[in-house]
């Protein structure tokens, strides 16, 4: 896919400027089991429950950060929990996620009933060097995360690659207590 489509889609869906200052130039390839590919499309919570395979153009000698974000919590109309962190892996060598440090384990779509469609976006940042995140409790506290602030704190600049899908509640979403 042409890189301009990534920027156009991120802007058309208001991910830029709501969560990011600039759109990525390249596309992250995200494929869920059953060959369900993320391509600025709609997927169901059941389709995105398992962790996907992810790849992107990367220099194997460089470090990268991958994040998955829901900016629409609890709903797109009233995003008072913006953003929800769904996945964060830092210090990834090239695009081999197994080499990275998982800060927040993968969580698929789980939009509550009646909250409408949520955008879930993936972004990749090139790291200027290793990121030390010891002491951050992002696994337990995923609400009100800011990918913009995280990138600023770790001098990541703008994302180099991205993709997103939309999903909304369906009966496969577990009830929240």
From TrEMBL:
InterPro entries: PEBP, PEBP-like_sf, PEBP_euk. Coiled coil: none annotated. It comes from the Eukaryota. It holds the Pfam family PBP. CDD domains: PEBP_euk. PANTHER family: PHOSPHATIDYLETHANOLAMINE-BINDING PROTEIN (PTHR11362), PHOSPHATIDYLETHANOLAMINE-BINDING PROTEIN 4 (PTHR11362:SF82). This is Phosphatidylethanolamine-binding protein.
């Amino acid at each position: 896919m042409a890189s301009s489509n990534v920027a156009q889609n991120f802007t058309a869906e208001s991910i830029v400027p709501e969560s990011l200052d600039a759109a990525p130039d390249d596309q992250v390839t995200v494929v869920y089991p059953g060959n369900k590919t993320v391509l600025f499309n709609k997927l169901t919570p059941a389709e995105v429950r398992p962790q996907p395979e992810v790849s992107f153009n990367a220099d194997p000698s460089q470090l990268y950060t991958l994040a998955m974000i829901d900016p629409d919590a609890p709903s797109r109309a009233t995003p008072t929990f913006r953003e929800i962190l769904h996945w964060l892996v830092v210090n990834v060598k090239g695009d081999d996620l197994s080499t990275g440090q998982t800060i927040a384990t993968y969580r698929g779509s789980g939009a509550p009933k009646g909250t409408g469609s949520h955008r879930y976006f993936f972004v990749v940042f090139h790291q200027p060097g290793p990121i030390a995140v010891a002491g951050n409790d992002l696994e337990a506290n995923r609400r009100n995360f800011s990918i913009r602030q995280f990138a600023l704190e770790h001098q990541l600049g703008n994302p180099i690659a991205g993709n997103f899908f939309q999903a909304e509640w369906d009966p496969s979403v577990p009830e929240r207590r």
